[in-house]
C-alpha cells in the first residue's frame, strides 16, 4: 500500500480518540472500508477484512497480557472468562460507537440508508481492523495504548469474572447432572451482508430459540432464552 491513501471520511473527533498520526494514511482508509465499498477489481483486498483478521489477534494478545497483569491471583479459567467478554463483538461495537467509528465507515450510499453502519458485527469488525491498522503503522505500543484507553472502563466495570449465557447454561445443566446443552442452527435468512441466524438450544428436556447477527450471537440469545424459561418454570412450581 502506498503512503498516500484516499482521504478517509473520519472526522476530527474520531481521529483525536486514536491519539496516533498515521505515517501511512492508506492503512486507516482500509480499516474504515467495509467490504460493500471495496473495489471488486482488486478482489476486495482494499476492504478492512484482512486488517480485521490481524486486529483480532493483536487485541487478544494485548488483552491477555493486561488481564494477567491486572489480576495476578486469578487462575486461567477466570482470566479466560474475562477475555471472552472483553473481546466479544458486543464489547467491540460499544468501543467503536464510543469513538465515533460508525460515522467514519466507508459504505455505499444505498447501504448507508439500510443501517449497515449501525450493525453490531460491522462496527465490531471495523474496530478490530482499526487495531490492526494501528499495529501495522505504529507497532504494538500504538495498538496497546488505544486498547488500554478504550477498554479500561469495561475491564474495571465488574471485578468478578463475568460469565456468558452459554457458560451459565452449561454450569446449570452440569450441576444438575443433566448433560451438555445441544445447539442447532434453525435458519439463516436475509442478504449476505445482513444475515439473521436463528439457533435452538435443547437441554434438560427444554428447548428455546434465539436470533442474532451471527451464529455465536444467536447461540447466546438462545441460552438466555432457555435460562429465562427455566427461571419462570421455577417460579411457577413454587
Instruction: Describe the sheet with the most strands.
Output: 3 strands, antiparallel
- Low-pLDDT parts are 1-8
The helix count comes to 10
Structural class: mainly alpha
What share of the residues does DSSP label as strand, in percent? 5-15%
Radius of gyration: 20 Å
Report the average pLDDT across residues.
87
Helical content stands at 55-70%
**Shape verdict:** globular
Give a structural overview.
The protein has 238 residues and is mainly alpha-helical. It is 58% helix and 10% strand. Strands 1-2-3 form a 3-stranded antiparallel sheet. The longest helix is centred in the middle third of the chain and has 38 residues, at 120-157. It is globular and about 60 Å long. It starts with 11 loop residues before the first helix and ends with a helix. Mean pLDDT is 87; it is low at 1-8.
Supply the key terms.
single chain, 238 residues, mainly alpha, 3-stranded antiparallel sheet, 10 helices, disordered N terminus
Amino acid at each position: 500500500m502506498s503512503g498516500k491513501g484516499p482521504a478517509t471520511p473520519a472526522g476530527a473527533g474520531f481521529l483525536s480518540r486514536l491519539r496516533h498520526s498515521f505515517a501511512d494514511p492508506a492503512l486507516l482508509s482500509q480499516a474504515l472500508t467495509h467490504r460493500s465499498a471495496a473495489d471488486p477489481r482488486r478482489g476486495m483486498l482494499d476492504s478492512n477484512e484482512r486488517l480485521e483478521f490481524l486486529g483480532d489477534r493483536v487485541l487478544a494478545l494485548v488483552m491477555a497480557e493486561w488481564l494477567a497483569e491486572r489480576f495476578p491471583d486469578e487462575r486461567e479459567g477466570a482470566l479466560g472468562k474475562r477475555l471472552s467478554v472483553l473481546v466479544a463483538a458486543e464489547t467491540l461495537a460499544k468501543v467503536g460507537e464510543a469513538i465515533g467509528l460508525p460515522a467514519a465507515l466507508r459504505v455505499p450510499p444505498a447501504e448507508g440508508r439500510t443501517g449497515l453502519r449501525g450493525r453490531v458485527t460491522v462496527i465490531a469488525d471495523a474496530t478490530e481492523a482499526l487495531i490492526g491498522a494501528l499495529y501495522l503503522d505504529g507497532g504494538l505500543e500504538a495498538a496497546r495504548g488505544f486498547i488500554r484507553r478504550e477498554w479500561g472502563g469495561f475491564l474495571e466495570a465488574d471485578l468478578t469474572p463475568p460469565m456468558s449465557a452459554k457458560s451459565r447454561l452449561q454450569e446449570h445443566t452440569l450441576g444438575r447432572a443433566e448433560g451438555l446443552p445441544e445447539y442447532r442452527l434453525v435458519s439463516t435468512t436475509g442478504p449476505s451482508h445482513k444475515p439473521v441466524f436463528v439457533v435452538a438450544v435443547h437441554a434438560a428436556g427444554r428447548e428455546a430459540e434465539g436470533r442474532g447477527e451471527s451464529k455465536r450471537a444467536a447461540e447466546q440469545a438462545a441460552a438466555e432464552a432457555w435460562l429465562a424459561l427455566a427461571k419462570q418454570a421455577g417460579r411457577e412450581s413454587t
